[in-house]
UniProtKB/TrEMBL annotation:
GO molecular function, one term: 3'-tRNA processing endoribonuclease activity
Protein's recorded name: MBL fold metallo-hydrolase
CDD domains the record matches: RNaseZ_short-form-like_MBL-fold
Organism annotation: Aeromicrobium piscarium
Gene3D superfamilies xref list: Ribonuclease Z/Hydroxyacylglutathione hydrolase-like
Alphabetical list of PANTHER family matching this protein: METALLO-HYDROLASE YHFI-RELATED (PTHR46018:SF4), ZINC PHOSPHODIESTERASE ELAC PROTEIN 1 (PTHR46018)
Length: 257
């Protein structure tokens, strides 16, 4: 499995990164299977430095806030109007109603036009399904809209992505033993933070410590937030391997233990 950080800026694109988008790749049937976790604002541009957009095999959208899904509008154009012709429908795992939401966001002239290039499949709490070489599991998180953490497993390895979430006890169990835990930390402990929205560095660190993850990858830090403060908060609860990710980083897991 290979994880590439396409965009990791929290809440909106920053000067050094697009909003949330993560490319996960693994061998499958003699080729490389490519899946996106989120396709947030500004991500479609840098994504093209890594792959041809026609090579995307599947997408999982954690939730329907713009910084996690709005570049689906650009991908709609690619798949519908590509010079080689309409591309095959792409499976998109997303919260219920994503087809209509994204169709309205783009402004398609036909009712629910997003379903022409995309085949939407509902993410639900407790879902377990197979997508190419991956087993995907989903868990509802604590956020103002329906939002899901996802766990991808392949040949004994696992990547867990928190999506957006406030503190919740269940997340540590969901991330239990993950090789890579891609976890948001949008808030800092020194601020008065609204509930049921995001995590601080210390909260992300506590979850990672309880889950016993191999490596914590901290993401979704907004451009206006001091990354050094997030890191200081993290170190109050976590002493394991970690990284505050930046766009362009690549993390690889071998296919054998």
């Amino acid at each position: 499995m290979k994880l590439t950080i396409i965009g990791c800026s929290g809440s909106f694109p920053g000067p050094d990164s697009a909003a949330s988008c993560y490319l996960v790749e693994a061998p499958y049937e003699g080729r490389t299977f490519r899946m996106l976790l989120d396709l947030g604002s500004g991500a479609l541009g840098p994504l093209q430095t890594y792959i041809d957009l026609r090579e995307i095999d599947a997408i999982s959208l954690s939730h329907l806030h713009p910084d996690h899904c709005f570049d689906m509008s650009g991908l709609y154009v690619v798949r519908k109007y590509h010079p080689t012709g309409l591309l095959p429908r792409l499976p998109v795992y997303a919260p219920a109603g994503s087809d209509w939401h994204l169709s309205d966001a783009y402004g398609t002239t036909n009712p629910n036009g997003m379903t022409l290039p995309f085949e939407f499949r509902d993410l639900t709490d407790g879902l377990e399904t197979t997508i190419g070489p991956f087993t995907l599991r989903a868990m509802l998180t604590s956020h103002p809209v329906a939002a899901y953490a996802v766990r991808l497993e392949h040949e004994g390895h696992s990547i867990v992505y928190s999506g957006d979430t406030g503190p919740m006890d269940e997340l540590a169990g969901f991330a239990d033993g993950a090789d890579l835990f891609l976890c948001e930390a949008s808030f800092v402990d020194s601020a008065t933070n609204p509930p049921h929205l995001h995590l601080t560095g210390s909260e992300a660190g506590q979850i990672a410590a309880e889950a016993g993850v191999g490596r914590l990858l901290v993401t979704h830090i907004p451009a206006w937030t001091d990354r050094a403060e997030v890191e200081r908060d993290l170190l109050t609860t976590y002493d394991g391997d970690y990284e505050l990710v930046t766009a362009g980083q690549v993390f690889e897991l071998s296919t054998t233990r």
